[in-house]
Amino acid sequence: MDTAHLRYVLVVGSTMALIGLGISAVMVTQAHKQSERRKQRLASVVATHLRPTDQAASAYGDASASTVAPWLKTIGWIFGFDSEKAALYPTRWWIALAGLLLAAKVAESIVADFLGSWAPYSVPLLWVVMSRNFFSYFERKRQLQLLNEFPEALALLVRAIRVGIPVMEAIRNVSRSAPPITAAGFARLVEQVAIGVTLNDALQALSRSTGLTEYRFFATALTLQNQAGGNLSDTLESLADVIRKRATIKAKGRAMTSEARSSSMVLAVLPLLTGLLLWIVSPRYISVLFTDPTGKWMLGLAVVLLSMGILSILTIIKKTLS
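RESULT FIELD:
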């Protein structure tokens, strides 16, 4: 098979892979839209039970108002970080971006032989992808820790309310007794209420800052109780039980998708191990991929297709478990 036929086969194969990736993306998007529609229906059902209340404007401003500059928000949106959550990251965001830019330049020097004159254009893409993965790792870690700690925080609230302690004092006790990450969120809630922000606004700000559905359930439960009355301790106890069950279901989901995650790891490692073995057994055989222009083009295309396949698997798993 000559070079022209080989390139034709590779182009056809890559086109089919892109079509498959597009179909997978459409299926995942449709599933995500169905999930969003279910959440909207749930919110509409809850909204019918809320009594409209006239809330005076707080002299201290909106609890959800952000003091972050617009240009910093834009940078954060591009690179996937939140400047208001700087404590989550191991270092300052601009130091992390500088280090990741250096890593992108190192990666660019590695792939320069395969991309040729296109290599400099890969630096911004590599920088953004590496940055978003770096910051999202710590965000996912924080959310997982919050989810695991939240049922115990609710248990503290339930015990305090059942012995007759007011709601705000019970929340203050949680801010003192809960684990550090959960306690920090409840401490901010107490501080906001202390300076004049309504409890409903402070609860909504807390749920937005965590990004967890479970905290939105908590805010809705307290808002309903604040407006309509009822047995708050039983409501919170039921909510804690629901959250524990949701955490159990998520753990089962991760266990059920472990085979797919293991397959993605094997697919990522197997070509590297095979190439290393061929390099040891027959260096001249595999050196064509690094010395011949067509070989470099084939190797670069193989890396791109392999990365796209692994990304598709991980994206489908993430959307399925969300």
